[in-house]
Amino acid sequence: MQFLTSGELVRLLDITKYTLRYYEEQQLIQPAFIDSNGYHMYGEDEVYAMAHVLLLKKIGFSIKDIKSSLENELDQTKTLTSVLSRIEDEMEQLNNAKNKVQTILGLQQKVSNGLITETKEIRSFTYLPDEFVDEAYNLNLKRLAKRKDDSLTILDEISYVITENGEKIKVMFGSTNEEAEHIMPSGTYFSKKITIEQEEELEPEIQCFYGDLALLDAEYEDSLFIHEEAYLSAFYTKSMVYSLEVKAK
C-alpha cells in the first residue's frame, strides 16, 4: 500500500498544512501512522476520509456536524435541509446586494446627464412624524434613536414631497402599500440627479430643474418629489446626491 506524507496529501487535496493540522486537532482525521522520523503518513483510507470531510465542509456543515456525521449520530436529511435553507438565505442576500450594485451603477450614469424622462412603477411612502424633523427638515437623530417603532432606521433612504406650490413639505420613507400615507403613482416622470455639498445649494438646483422643464414646455403635476440617493451618495466623500422628480401630465 502506498502512503503519503502530509506535504503530499495537502498538494493532492489542494489544502494547506494548517487546514490538515486543524482537522487532526479536531479529531476529524488521523494519520495511518507516524514513522520513525516523526512524519505523519496517510494511506488511501485517510485520503478519502479527508476528501469526505472537505466535501461536508464545502456544502456548509459545521465542525460539530461533521464530527456527528462521522460518528453516524447525525440526521443527514435534517442537517442537509438546514444547510440548504442557509444557502438559499445567503443567495437571497447576495442577489439583494447584486441588485443594489446594479442600481448604483445605473444611478451613477444619470447623475450628470441633465433632465431625463423615466417610467416609474407605483411607490409607497409613510410620513415621518414632525417631532423627528426640525424646522429645516433635518432629522433629529437623538429622537430617532429613542423611537420605539423600529420601522425606520438611519440606513433608510429619505424622501420629501413638496406640494401646494411649495407651501407644504413632508418628509417620508418607503413603506408597503398597506401602510402608505403617500402614493407616487406609476407613470412618466421628468427627473434629474443633482449633487450638492451644502443644503443651501438645493433651492437653486430646484429652480434650475424648473427652468429645464420650462425650456421643454413640459406639462407636469404640481408636486415636487425629492429623494435622497443614500446608496449613491456613499461614493461621494463631500457631496449628497438627490433625485428631483415631477410627474408628467
Automatic annotation (TrEMBL):
Transmembrane segments: none annotated. The keyword Transcription applies. This is HTH merR-type domain-containing protein. InterPro entries: DNA-bd_dom_put_sf (IPR009061), MerR-type_HTH_dom (IPR000551), MerR_fam (IPR047057). Keywords: Coiled coil, DNA-binding, Repressor, Transcription, Transcription regulation. PROSITE patterns: HTH_MERR_2. SUPFAM superfamilies: Putative DNA-binding domain. It comes from Terribacillus saccharophilus. Residues 1-72 form the HTH merR-type domain. Pfam families: MerR_1 (PF13411). The keyword Repressor applies. One of its GO terms (molecular function) is DNA binding. SMART domains: HTH_MERR. Residues 77-104 form a coiled coil. The lineage of its organism: Bacteria, Bacillati, Bacillota, Bacilli, Bacillales.
